[in-house]
Amino acid sequence: MPAIQDSAAGVASPGYRWYVAAQVVSIVGTMMGYTAIYWLALRIGHGDATVLSAVVAAESLPMLLFSRRAGTIVARYRAVRVVTVTQALQAAGSLAIGIPLLAGWMSSWYLVPLAFVIGCVQTIDVPARQTFMVDLVGRADLRRGTSLYATVTGLAKIAGPGVAGIIIAAAGETAVFLADAASFLGVIAVLVLVSGGIQHARAAAAPAGAARRFRWVLDLPPGIRAAAVMALLLGGFGLQFGVTNPLMATRVFHLGAAGFGLLGTFVAVGGIAGNYYSSRRDDPGRSEFLVWALVFGVAECLAAIMPAAWAYDLSMIVIGAATQLFAVSATVYVQQAAPAAQRGHALSAYNAGFMGFVPAGAFVVAALAAIAGARWALIGPGLLVAVGAASILAARMWPARRGAMVADASTTADRL
Prior knowledge:
Blueprint: H1 2-11, H2 16-44, H3 49-76, H4 79-102, H5 108-137, H6 142-171, H7 173-194, H8 208-213, H9 222-238, H10 241-252, H11 257-279, H12 288-304, H13 309-337, H14 343-355, H15 358-372, H16 376-415
C-alpha cells in the first residue's frame, strides 16, 4: 500500500500513525462484535426479526435522545480524553455480554437494555472521535486525514465480519465478545501516550446558547440541514443491514454464520475503495454528498433483486463505496461549515440524523420484511434515499438555473 503510506506521511502528526495502527486492531474487534450481537439476537429470537430489530433500535436510540448532551460534553472537554473514556466503556460493554455467555446464560431482556447502554456510550464516542481527528491533523488536512484513516481502518472492517462468522461457527459468540473487549486495550494505551502532544483545536467551549440553537435539524444552517436530512434517510432507513443482511442470508440465500459474516466483509471492501478515492479528491462541495446518496439508493434497489448470493455480495461492494463516500463528504462538509465553537453540536446534530432514527427505521424495515419479504426491506429504503437525494439536488439546481435563465433573458432584452 505505498500510495496510502505516502499520503499518510503528508498528514500525519506525531500521534497520527500510532492512533491509526491501534484503531485497526480495535475496529477488527468492533466489527466482530457487531456481527456477533446481531447473530446472537437472531438466535435468541429463534429466527424472528423482532429481537434483532429491538437490539438494533436500542443501540441507536440514544443518538436521537442524547445527541444534544453529547455535543455539550465534546465541546467542554478535550476530545482525546473523551475518546479514551468511551473506548474503555465500550470494552466493558463487550465484557458485559461475553461473561454471561461464558456462564451459559443470555436473555433478550438483558441484551436489549445492555445494547441501549452501549448506544449511550457510542453517542458520545462518535462526535468525540470526529472532533479528535480535527485536533490530530488540523483543518487543512481534514479530508485527507479522515479519508486515509477510514481507508486503513476499512481494511480491518474486511477482516472483522468474516473472522466473526468463522469464530461463531467454531466456538460460539462468547469468544467473539471477549476478543472484542481485548481489542480496545491497544487504542486506549495509544491515546494515553499521545494525549500530551495533542493541541486542542477549539479555543473555548461553545456558549450555552449554542446547544439550544442546534437542538434539532430545523435549527441548522441550510447546508448542514440538507446533510442531516440525507443522513436521516440513509442512516435511519437505508443502512439497516443489521436487520436485512441476516434475513437475506437465512431466508433468501440460506447461508450459515460464515456466509453471513462475509456479507459485511464485502461492504467493507467497497468502503475501502470509496475512502481511498475520497482521499484523492479536494474538499467536498455542498452537493457532493447528495450525489453519493443517490448512488447508494439506486445500488440498494439493485441489490434487492440479485438472484444469487455472489451477485448480492458484489452489490454490497458498490453500497459500501457509496456509503463511505457519502459519510466522508458529508462529515467533512459539516465540520468545515460549522463555526469552531459549535462544531461539536453540529456534528452531534448530524449524527443524530445519521444514527438517531435507526430505532424507528429498524422496526419499519423489519415490518416491511414481515409483510412483503426480505427483498422489499431493501427496495423500500433504497427508493426513499434515492428520491430524497434527487429532490434536494433538484431544489438546489433550480435556483441557479432560474438565475441563469433570467440573466439570459435580460441580455437578450438589452440587445433588442
